[in-house]
Structures are given as structure tokens and as C-alpha cells.
Design brief:
Blueprint (H helix, E strand, L loop, with lengths): L1 H64 L4 H24 L2 H6 L14
């Protein structure tokens, strides 16, 4: 009977070691999965931040390159009219001799020597 207990004890010990090894392996695998999951979460957050930043940059560039809207043209016309009024007022205050000189300069009759 002593031999039977030795076999039973040996079998119990072998099963116990196998179970402990399995549990340890499972714990290590779970830790590895948790680490991997955390790393992936950080990478995803970084990628999302990069996408948001890129989207803002692209939006800013696109907005700068868009053609003028009706509102933009209307605002420019209003500003231009104000500038014309100011220029007219300045020209009215100029003496008559200065008014003649303010026109565009005439080109000389000489041809350039580009040939």
C-alpha cells in the first residue's frame, strides 16, 4: 500500500505542478495582453490627435485657398468706395498745379535694347 500512496502522491504532485504552471502561464499571458492593449490604446490616442491636428491644418489651408464669397466681394467694394471718397477729398484739397502732376507718368518714346 505504501507504493500505492507513493504513486498517488506523485500523481497529485504532478497534477499540482501542471496546474500551477498553467495558472502562471495564463497570468503571464494576461499581463502581456494587458500591456499590449494599453500600448494600442496609447497609439490610437496619438493617431487620433494627429488626425485632429492634420484636419485643422488642412482646413486652414483650404479656407485660405477658397475663392472670395459674395460677402467678401461686397466688403471689398465697400472698402474701395471709402478709399475713393478719401482720395477724392484729398485731391480736392490739392492746389491746381499738383492736380495735373498726379496723373500716370507717360512712357518715353525710346525702345529698350532687349534685342
Amino acid at each position: 500500500m505504501a507504493e500505492r500512496r507513493d504513486i498517488s502522491d506523485s500523481l497529485r504532485e504532478a497534477v499540482d505542478r501542471t496546474v500551477r504552471a498553467t495558472v502562471d502561464t495564463r497570468d503571464r499571458a494576461q499581463d502581456a495582453v494587458d500591456d499590449l492593449s494599453g500600448t494600442m490604446d496609447e497609439l490610437v490616442r496619438g493617431a487620433e490627435k494627429g488626425i485632429r491636428t492634420g484636419r485643422r491644418s488642412v482646413s486652414a489651408v483650404v479656407v485660405e485657398r477658397l475663392p472670395a464669397t459674395q460677402e467678401d466681394v461686397k466688403a471689398m467694394r465697400t472698402e474701395l468706395r471709402a478709399i475713393v471718397r478719401r482720395l477724392d477729398a484729398i485731391e480736392e484739397r490739392l492746389p491746381p498745379a499738383a492736380k495735373k502732376k498726379s496723373g500716370p507718368k507717360k512712357k518715353s518714346g525710346k525702345k529698350s535694347k532687349a534685342s
